[in-house]
Amino acid sequence: MTTRAISLVFLCAAIAAAQEKVSVPLSDPSRPATLKARLISGSITVTAGTGPEVVVESESSSRRGRDFGPNNPPPGMHRIDIGGRGLNIEEDHNVVTISASPAGMNQNVVIQVPMNTSLDLRTVNGRIDVTGVNGDLDVGSTNSSIDLKDVSGAVSASTVNGTVVVNMTRVTPDKPMSFSTLNGRIDVTIPADTKARLRLKTTNGAIYSDFDVKMEPDNSKPIVEDARGQGGKYRIRMDRSNGAYGSINGGGPEYSFQTMNGTILIHKK
To answer: In this structure, is residue 235 part of a structural domain?
Structure first.
């Protein structure tokens, strides 16, 4: 097996955006692949393709300044291209790694992968959309939403500001899963025969499900604070920081659903 490295550079001398498409051959197409992608500003879209390669298409655009942009130079002046903008793509033993450079570029990438591919996707300012992929899916954004459609395997999906929507056709029976956001809705659909122990937590929102969820007793002990001897108050608090627990279909690996400001929806398929 060999190691392949591909570097893509988008030069934007006279236009605000450039597009490029490249096919990345795998070292061993008979084995499952792994895709890792890291962006600062830009969306990541991954779909299951029909071929044995990873196909990457990217559009990069410079961030416009407050007064002048690529198509709006100051009067009497023209843009000077400094180069060095684009994507770095590397393949090493069926692991394809994609990173954007520099941080001042917006990079939106659209990627086709073999169906059996594990994903490790991260972006700060951009959506993550995945369709039809089977594997261990670990995806995270900071300031946007996550949408996984018709995926299978095991999922860990987290964002800070945005919704998390996941529709699964099959789950790995013995693996835990996690779905979290700080500000947004969590909407997850899983097969009706899924066996799992659910960890449920929302601070400002409600939880709904069409599963028959067997809730566990709340065994949290009250916390007593007595500061009356120092002129304070006597206070009793119930610590529910770990959320509530329940099970579906007799229980199984732990599935965590957590948001602060939003509703949690758990559907059976």
So the answer is: no
Question: Comparing 242 with 150, which gets the higher pLDDT?
Answer: 150
Name the β-bridge partners of 122. Answer: 38, 140
The 10s digit of each residue's pLDDT in 107-136 is 789 999 999 999 999 999 999 999 999 999
Domain, as residue range, for 89:
1-63+81-144
pLDDT at 238: 56
Residues 37 and 104 in one domain: yes
Return the percent helix, strand and coil in the chain, to nearest 5. Answer: 0, 60, 40
Residue of 98, 191, 192, 180 whose CA lies nearest to 140: 180
Q: Residue 53 region, left (φ>0) first, then alpha (ψ -120 to 50), else beta?
A: beta
pTM as predicted: 0.80
Rg, C-alpha atoms of the chain? 23
The token pair that represents 16 in the structure block:
């605000």
Are residues 13 and 56 both part of a single domain? yes
SS3 assignment, position 230: helix
Same structural domain, 35 and 107: yes
* 11 lies in the same domain as 136: yes
User: Which residues are 214's β-sheet partners?
Assistant: 247
Report pLDDT digits (tens) over 133-172. Answer: 999 999 999 999 999 999 999 999 999 999 999 999 999 9
Rounded to 5°, the CA angle 182-194-180 comes to 5
Residues 10 and 100 in one domain: yes
Q: How far apart are CA 140 and CA 181, in angstroms?
A: 10
